[in-house]
């Protein structure tokens, strides 16, 4: 202690002079001191940033709702600008009446809202063959969790009238990639929605303004942005995005298809490689996120010794189906090395597996749907590294 | 009015009339989709070939079309350039480490190839290929995978006769049987294993992008983060500054060489409207070219300072032999050459590798040149 703190004993500028007026920022951005909390790209992953992905800075966030401005983006032909007056949504195929809706039409249907996580099937995909990327943003940041407002997809399909032979829908976007995907009619009529608001505001351009599909619990590639067409079909289209991509190749060379559900998963967001411990010994908040596409998170356990022993973490709120859940474990850190892990459970009784358990079944070449337990090696100086353990 | 009656009256007012629905519960919103509209948007091809239009294409025509539209990213022989997808090869690799997934080795349905090429390719210029072009390119991709001979002609009639090698390589998601029973139940909490060893470190690979230190609190780091560009941007900014300097130097040389007559033109202020229109036109170029601060070479060279500069002058960019020849001949990208090239890239400079059909409208070319001129 070096005497009185001048920040307290001396009058600071901000305590004497005035700040900005209310007209300064009609729609604001975070304060400049938070300028490092941004989406980041891993340039070597893809050929071109126009058809690429970036990562949510989950290491720097708390709570569960992802601010739209830093929620990850994945485009196959870039984020397009599509104005509401130019927006059309077609429902056609095996329906009684093929219809075209304007954006205005959509706003007149009875509305629905829900908080859902959207996780890219490739989230953590770079970690199959071994620990690769140093930071939860990069290992687990292809995810966001937002509160959507829109209309149930069932309402639109009912408006057109699905014929009995309609067993699937095919959805596509208005962008140059169109990113067409097939979805079984049961899921379409269950909980899918056409959303036009996220976290209270209009969808951001990069998230599909003015309307996108929300497919709760299922891989993000199905959440077609700039949604322009829904066709009821008698079978899957087997498009590029559901055959050559988003399929999971097993060790024997056969591949799983239609692996839409995102299984229970969790990660410690701090401390982690981008968030080393800087405060010395004593109270340490270990925190992270958990989610499951099959239901609600019921429990998250945390291990500081690489999985030898586990403690049950506190959930910020009881888990909700297909939403992110925040967990905290209050720990007394005495400068010891830790092998930090988290393990999520959902209300189906599913327990997040270790990487070796997943590899024993799928091999190392699946690319997608890696929901294995993550390990951070916290060193004595508080820095952290992404590692794998026996 | 009693409080009770008031509440009832309010209740009636606030609940309002029920929504008018027909017997099927429809609200009557939207309008009927016209057949022409459905035809314009519903271009999907089903695995059994439903949706394929009339037409045909042979391997040789396909090669021509492929070189024109696809090779810049996917390579002359469908081998893929850089990180762009490989379309050929990879047979017998699916059960090995790092399987090579191509049309030949992985794709189970030929309909997917036709659909994707026709619907979403070429990247940055979707939906310019006719059905005949698409049949031809699909035939060439099959040929490059040794799945058909060089005299093969693909059409709707023989489409389903093509055997895709990995057609039987897929199973429907079986996690419910193979994983969920094993990954369920009360997990171990104590003495779950005897020992724990680190078996792999991410730092060994060192592939994480440079990251500003998010964890450093305190005044100093706040200053650092807020006043300086983030650490991971620094190299990019340096590079762009360097390139800009070089480009500027190149431009000056070209100007000087062009003589006094051009000075007046160079001094004319760019028309902001034309520049803005050019920015819009440039969207067609963006898939391959970058311009502006931090612009780098991609499929095509970065274009800062390209106007009035020597042809083929960007360092570290691998130009086609045709472009190098033009450069050696002393060609300069001035108004005239740019007009010729942008109107008809292949006709103006045969065998150059720019896979772009050209800009049809002179005003688009004028605009894009103005836009490029605004990025010295």
UniProtKB/TrEMBL annotation, chain B:
Q: Where is this region: Disordered?
A: 206-270
Q: Where is the composition biased (Acidic residues)?
A: 211-230
Domain (Cytochrome c): residue spans on this chain:
57-145, 273-376
State the UniProt keywords alphabetically. Answer: Electron transport, Heme, Iron, Metal-binding, Transport
Task: Fetch the PROSITE patterns from UniProt.
Answer: CYTC
Q: Does the keyword Transcription regulation apply?
A: no
Where composition is biased (Low complexity), the residues are 237-269
Out of the domains of life, which is the source? Bacteria
Known InterPro entries for this protein?
A: Cyt_c-like_dom, Cyt_c-like_dom_sf, Cyt_c_1A/1B
| Gene3D superfamilies given in the database record | Cytochrome c-like domain (1.10.760.10)
PANTHER family (alphabetical): CYTOCHROME C
Q: What is the protein's name according to its record?
A: C-type cytochrome
What is the organism field in this record?
Paracoccus maritimus
Read off the lineage from the record.
Bacteria, Pseudomonadati, Pseudomonadota, Alphaproteobacteria, Rhodobacterales
């Amino acid at each position: 202690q070096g005497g009185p703190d001048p920040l307290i004993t001396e009058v600071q500028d901000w305590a004497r002079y005035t700040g900005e007026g209310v007209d300064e920022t009609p729609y604001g951005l975070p304060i400049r001191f938070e300028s490092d909390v941004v989406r980041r790209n891993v340039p070597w992953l893809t050929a071109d940033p126009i058809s690429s992905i970036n990562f949510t800075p989950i290491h720097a966030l708390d709570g569960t709702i992802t601010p739209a401005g830093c929620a990850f983006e994945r485009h196959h032909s870039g984020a397009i600008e599509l104005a509401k007056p130019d927006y059309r949504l077609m429902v056609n195929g095996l329906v009684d009446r093929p219809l075209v809706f304007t954006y205005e039409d959509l706003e007149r249907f009875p509305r629905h809202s829900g908080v859902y996580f959207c996780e890219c099937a490739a989230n953590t995909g770079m970690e199959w063959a071994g620990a690769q990327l140093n930071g939860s943003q990069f290992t687990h940041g292809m995810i966001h969790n937002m509160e959507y407002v829109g209309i149930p997809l069932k309402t639109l399909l009912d408006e057109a009238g699905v014929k009995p032979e309609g067993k699937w829908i095919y959805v596509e976007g208005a962008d140059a990639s169109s990113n067409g995907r097939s979805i079984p009619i049961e899921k379409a009529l269950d909980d899918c929605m056409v959303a036009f608001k996220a976290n209270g505001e209009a969808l951001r351009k990069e998230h599909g303004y003015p309307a996108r599909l929300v497919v709760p619990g299922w891989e993000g590639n199905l959440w077609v942005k700039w949604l322009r067409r829904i066709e009821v079909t008698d079978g899957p289209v087997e498009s590029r995005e559901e055959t050559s991509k988003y399929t999971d190749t097993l060790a024997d060379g056969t591949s799983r298809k239609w692996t839409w559900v995102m299984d229970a998963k969790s990660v410690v967001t701090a401390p982690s490689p981008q968030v080393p411990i800087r405060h010395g010994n004593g109270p340490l908040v270990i925190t992270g996120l958990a989610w499951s596409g099959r239901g609600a998170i019921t429990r998250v356990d945390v291990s500081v010794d690489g999985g030898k022993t586990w403690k049950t973490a506190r959930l910020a709120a009881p888990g909700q189906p297909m939403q992110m859940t925040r967990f905290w474990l209050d720990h007394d850190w005495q400068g010891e090395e830790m092998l930090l892990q988290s393990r999520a459970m959902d209300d189906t009784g599913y327990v997040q597996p270790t990487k070796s358990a997943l590899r024993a079944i799928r091999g190392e070449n699946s690319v997608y749907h890696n929901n294995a337990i993550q390990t951070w090696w916290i060193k004595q100086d508080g820095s952290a590294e992404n590692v794998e353990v026996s | 009015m009693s409080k009770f009656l008031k509440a009832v009256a309010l209740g009636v007012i606030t609940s309002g009339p029920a929504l008018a629905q027909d017997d099927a519960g429809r609200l009557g919103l939207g309008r009927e989709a016209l057949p022409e509209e459905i035809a314009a948007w519903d271009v999907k091809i089903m695995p059994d070939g439903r949706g394929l239009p009339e037409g045909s294409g042979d391997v040789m025509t396909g090669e021509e079309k492929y070189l024109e539209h696809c090779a810049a990213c996917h390579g002359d022989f469908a081998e893929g350039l850089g990180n762009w997808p490989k379309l050929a090869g990879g047979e017998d690799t699916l059960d090995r480490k790092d399987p090579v997934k191509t049309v030949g080795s992985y794709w189970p349905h030929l309909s997917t190839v036709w659909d994707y090429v026709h619907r979403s390719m070429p990247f940055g210029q979707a939906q310019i290929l006719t059905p005949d072009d698409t049949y031809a390119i699909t035939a060439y991709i099959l040929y490059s995978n040794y799945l058909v001979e060089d005299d093969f002609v693909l059409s709707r009639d023989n489409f389903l006769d093509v055997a895709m090698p990995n057609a039987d390589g897929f199973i429907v998601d079986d996690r419910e049987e193979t994983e969920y029973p094993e990954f369920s139940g009360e997990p171990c909490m104590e003495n779950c294993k005897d020992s724990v060893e680190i078996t792999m470190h991410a730092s060994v690979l060192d592939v994480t992008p440079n990251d500003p230190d998010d964890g450093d609190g305190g005044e100093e780091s706040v200053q650092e983060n807020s006043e300086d560009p983030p650490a991971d941007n620094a190299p990019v900014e340096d590079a762009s500054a360097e390139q800009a300097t070089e480009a500027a130097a190149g431009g000056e040389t070209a100007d000087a060489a062009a003589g006094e007559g051009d000075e007046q033109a160079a001094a004319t202020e760019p028309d902001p409207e034309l520049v803005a229109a050019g920015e819009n036109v440039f969207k067609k170029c963006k898939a391959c070219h970058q311009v502006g601060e931090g612009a780098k070479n991609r499929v095509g060279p970065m274009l800062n300072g390209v106007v009035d500069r020597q042809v083929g002058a960007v360092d570290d960019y691998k130009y086609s032999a045709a472009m190098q020849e033009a450069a050696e001949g002393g060609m300069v990208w001035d108004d005239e050459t740019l007009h010729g090239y942008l109107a008809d890239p292949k006709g103006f400079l045969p065998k150059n590798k720019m896979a772009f059909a050209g800009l049809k409208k002179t005003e688009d070319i004028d605009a894009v040149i103005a836009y490029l001129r605004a990025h010295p």
